[in-house]
Design brief:
By secondary structure, the protein is mainly alpha-helical. Helix content is 42%, strand content 5%. The chain is built from 20 helices and 5 strands. It binds flavin-adenine dinucleotide (FAD).
């Protein structure tokens, strides 16, 4: 049996990889391939391209240690694999399922169709999630639940029926056929950074390095912190969105394992089983879902199940779980938010970190997503999700769309009258504004008293800090108190229209325009997951 193994963007590892193990079984030749459109500018940002190349290099090294190698084919999967199926006369094509997005399903369906047309057998196995998502959907009665508590019950029942087991990496792999490795060896190697349009200094703000080896080392590090106690006690709301060094022992941040889970460098099942054994097993009084670390893995599974079972999940229109809200459409407001020039330092600092490092803490994502949508700017969550898709290292369409729906109160969370203040919220974590100073050098010398509302600083203080508001740093793009109240009223209208059974009744309302900022006051705090 001659088999092609198709590594996808979400399965770049050797450990706990049932589809790879099954592909190796009974194969006399195994062709491990990854499809990359080298000549086409990739739609995602530099951070993600760099992480991808590092992950491919690490995967290639791992395969070589098993007497194999990675063959990087040029082109989209449905094009590159068509040629490979014919050139190598294979009998079987294998890959790991990825049900996170309509695009990943479409791509797999296209590949299945061309394999079928070529008379090639297809072998697909799970592994991107902890459970079989169809089994979880069946436990929910066929369509996904949008509440976490019942989902946890379904998950636990499913785990009792089909325990989560992480499998070791293969100890050997069948050889790669000679026709794939000979003369054009270099052409099929993992490309150099320049080949995918990465500048020489692309790693200037690298937060985490790509690859399975780095993922496993990071997991070890977290599980060893305080003999497993850190992971056992970790409660998400107690972590800080403003940790200056999000990664490393002693940080008050979360694990930053999300890029590895998104690219499949780390198996969620390995994470879950090791967490159970090495942290919870040793510290029985551990934290519990929804805020615990395993609670976070359950959130991941929850959103994957929702994405798999919901038509048009990544859009508002035609999405049965999403409230229809007449969002505004203002390119200028969207650009100011995306480029970190709203005039609200906490929001701008978070968007700057996101652009530079490709990652921000969950609560920073909460704050910027709320600000763009129902909080302040009244722009569509789909627009925000698209900006995140461009900038995030850990893009996962199921998690991205799901969390954007949550923060915009379009689904999952309905207390739209609870809103993040871009002034009061950051003060709770970082009174002096060290995080803002780090990411917005223009405000580096600003007095702490005005760091989250610099437009209120007397001109003498602005001059002393070397930062004139309106010249060196923007004035606020909207007045938070005015805009958030107006937006709550619009949300109330949209909810009422939804209750009456139609989005059309919620008439389009104008976008908040630049108004003189009113003094910020404390808003009702959001319930944090
Ligand atoms: P930890 O707290 O250490 O959690 C461990 C793992 O659990 C994460 O790596 C992640 O896989 C999962 N997880 C944690 N929080 C969530 C959550 N709320 N929902 C689902 N799974 C979760 N996460 C992504 O991986 N990709 C995205 O594209 C993405 N987009 C988001 C968009 C918005 C608007 C918001 C509010 C959140 C988004 N998240 C996304 C979820 C979450 O913010 C990140 O998973 C988390 O911050 C990653 O950091 P971590 O690995 O340190 O998380």
């Amino acid at each position: 049996m001659r088999t092609i193994y198709w590594f996808r963007m979400s399965s770049l590892r050797l450990h706990d990889h049932p589809a790879l193990l099954a592909a190796a079984e009974g194969s006399s030749c195994l062709y491990p391939v990854f499809c990359l459109e080298r000549r086409i500018a990739t739609p995602y940002g530099e951070n993600r391209r760099r992480f991808l190349l590092e992950s491919l290099r690490d995967l290639d090294a791992g395969l070589r240690s098993l007497n194999s190698r990675l063959i990087v084919l040029d082109g989209a999967p449905e094009v590159a694999l068509r040629a490979a199926l014919a050139d190598w006369s294979v009998d079987r094509l294998a890959y790991q399922l990825d049900l996170a997005s309509a695009e990943s399903k479409r791509s797999a369906a296209a590949v299945d169709a061309l394999a079928e047309a070529a008379g090639v057998q297809v072998l697909a196995r799970g592994g991107h999630t902890m459970c079989d998502l169809d089994a979880l959907l069946r436990r929910a009665g066929g369509s996904p639940t949008t509440s976490y508590a019942p989902f946890v019950k379904h998950f636990e029942a499913e785990v009792r029926a089909a325990p989560i087991v992480a499998r070791p990496a293969p100890s050997r792999l069948p050889p790669v056929g000679g026709e794939a490795t000979a003369a054009d060896d270099a052409a099929r190697a993992v490309p150099a950074p320049a080949d995918v349009g990465l500048p020489a200094d692309a790693d200037a703000a690298v937060l985490v390095r790509g690859g399975e080896s780095a993922a496993l080392a990071r997991l070890d590090e977290h599980l060893q912190r305080r003999g497993g106690a850190w992971a056992a006690e970790m409660e998400k709301p107690a972590t800080s969105p403003m940790a200056l060094e999000p990664f490393g022992a002693g940080t008050r941040s979360t694990t930053v394992l999300s890029p590895y889970l998104a690219f499949g460098c780390l198996s969620p099942r390995l994470f879950y089983t090791r967490l159970a054994a090495e942290a919870y097993g040793r510290h029985p009084k551990h934290a519990m879902p929804p805020v615990s670390l395993h609670g976070q893995l359950l959130w991941r599974e929850f959103f994957h199940t929702c994405a798999h079972g919901t038509p048009n999940y990544e859009r508002m229109v035609g999405n049965p779980i999403c409230r229809q809200v007449p969002w505004g459409d203002d390119k200028e407001l969207l650009a100011a938010w995306a480029e970190g020039r709203t005039g609200y330092p906490w929001i701008d600092a978070a968007m700057t970190q996101l652009r530079r490092e490709g990652w921000i803490h969950h609560l920073a994502r909460h704050a910027v997503a709320c600000f763009l949508t129902r909080g302040d700017l009244w722009q569509s969550w789909e627009k925000g999700a698209a900006v995140f898709e461009e900038l995030l290292l850990d893009v996962d369409p199921a998690l991205n769309a799901g969390n954007w729906m949550w923060l915009s109160a379009s689904c999952f969370f309905y207390q739209y009258f609870r809103c993040y203040s871009p002034v009061a919220f950051p003060k709770k974590y970082d009174k002096d504004g060290a995080y803002v100073r780090r990411w917005l050098p223009a405000l580096a010398n600003f007095p702490a008293k005005y760091i989250y509302e610099p437009w209120k600083a007397p001109i003498a203080d602005q001059k002393a800090a070397g930062c004139i508001i309106g010249k060196d740093y923007p004035k606020p793009i909207v007045a938070h108190d005015v805009a958030s109240k107006a937006n709550m009223a619009k949300m109330a209208e949209a909810y009422a229209a939804h209750k009456e059974g139609g989005a059309s009744k919620a008439a389009a309302t104008p976008t908040p325009k630049r108004a003189a900022p009113a003094p910020a006051k404390k808003t009702k705090q959001m319930k944090l997951k």
